[in-house]
Design goal:
Elements (H helix, E strand, L loop, with lengths): L1 E4 L2 E4 L22 H7 L1 H23 L2 E2 L2 E2 L1 E3 L3 E4 L3 E4 L1 H9 L6 H17 L3 H5 L3 H15 L11 H16 L3 H5 L1 H11 L5 H14 L3 H6 L1 H10 L4 E5 L9 H5 L8 H7 L1 E2 L9 H5 L5 E5 L13 E4 L2
Antiparallel strand pairs: 1-2, 2-11, 3-4, 5-6, 6-7, 8-9, 8-10
């Protein structure tokens, strides 16, 4: 249908879209050579080196007095720490809970939270979950085992449940007058006990392992963790993204199968924006590693070209 307006003809019906020509589907196959395997596992290896390396720095400083420039290298834990005795580092979600509990954090806590917040704002908030959080190693092991054994989930809760958990943590902090999630957080408990000594708190970590192994795939990190929900919100404006080349994608679905986050890999949205833009993406690199067409890669948001938007209207000059 055409409408005449101010001497111009406006076509209100968009032109029919041509079907996209895609390469033939071929699925990922693990390389036979050691070098090929190491290349596929490169992000997993890097993540484990970061997670274990940070733990070693904390342990070395606490137990062996490691110093650099005559200052303790990394003292404290993930909730509150200090780098080189000078730079404060604080968990922004913990500070937010303290504020909700009607207490005023000290200036160093505010400064440390701002430093950590800006760091993950650049990288993408949920980078914390896959690259630093020690519980990630436990849940990855549980989900690797369930795939090997073929365990089926007993039930599924919506992934958005973790946002209700975040809200509940803040409400309970206000009611109880304490940072509610910090008191029971298996992340904080596991990290403190790995640094300062094993204790009864690791029962919570064992519970998460059993839950992810026998009850629900990616249950804790993918559906329940309030801290993951907090970093998901930050991750929506994170600058390091997984870029997506729609033209090279055959839609084999291998990336969807390995992604630990439900509903993150949406091909239509990725093609439209040229990247995986959902804040729930942890930038773990699993999808990048196994893409047979190499149409997924890490890049800065500013360097990613958006996909072509479908035309809504066409204007033709007419006398």
């Amino acid at each position: 249908m055409n409408e005449v307006k101010n001497g111009a003809t406006m076509t209100t019906e968009s032109a029919p879209q041509k079907p996209v020509s895609r390469p033939p589907i071929r699925h990922f196959q693990i390389p036979l050579t050691l070098g090929g395997k190491l290349y596929v596992w490169r992000f997993l290896i890097a993540r484990r080196l970061v997670q274990i390396g940070v733990l070693i720095l904390f342990i070395g400083t606490a137990h062996w007095g490691w110093t650099l420039f005559n200052q303790p290298v990394l003292s404290g834990d993930l909730s509150s720490s200090r780098f080189l005795g000078v730079i404060p580092l604080s968990d922004p979600f913990a500070v937010l809970q303290i504020i909700a509990s009607r207490h005023m954090p000290i200036f160093d806590a505010f400064l440390g939270a701002a430093i950590v917040f800006l760091f993950y704002l650049l990288l993408g908030g949920r980078v914390f979950c896959s690259w630093l959080c020690p519980v990630n190693m436990v849940t990855d092991l549980a989900n690797w085992l369930r795939e090997k054994v073929g365990v089926r989930s007993l039930f599924i809760v919506p992934a958005k449940t973790r946002y209700w958990g975040l809200l509940l943590a803040l409400i309970l902090s206000f009611i109880l007058g304490v940072a509610a999630f910090e008191w029971i957080s298996p992340i904080a408990v596991m990290h403190r006990e790995l640094i300062f000594g094993m204790g009864i708190g690791l029962i919570a970590v064992l519970g998460i392992f059993i839950f992810d192994l026998l009850i629900m795939a990616h249950g804790w990190c993918g559906h329940l963790c309030p801290l993951g929900a907090f970093w998901s919100i930050v991750g929506r404006v994170g600058q390091v993204r997984v870029a997506f080349d729609d033209a090279a994608c055959s839609r084999c679905g291998d990336c969807v199968k390995v992604c630990p986050e439900p509903l993150v890999l949406n091909f239509k949205e990725a093609a439209r924006h040229g990247m995986i833009r959902f804040g729930e993406c942890t930038n773990c690199g699993k999808c990048v590693s196994i893409c047979p067409e190499q149409c997924l890669s890490f890049n800065l948001r500013a360097c990613i070209r958006k996909g072509a938007e479908p035309s809504q209207t066409t204007h033709n000059s007419s006398s």
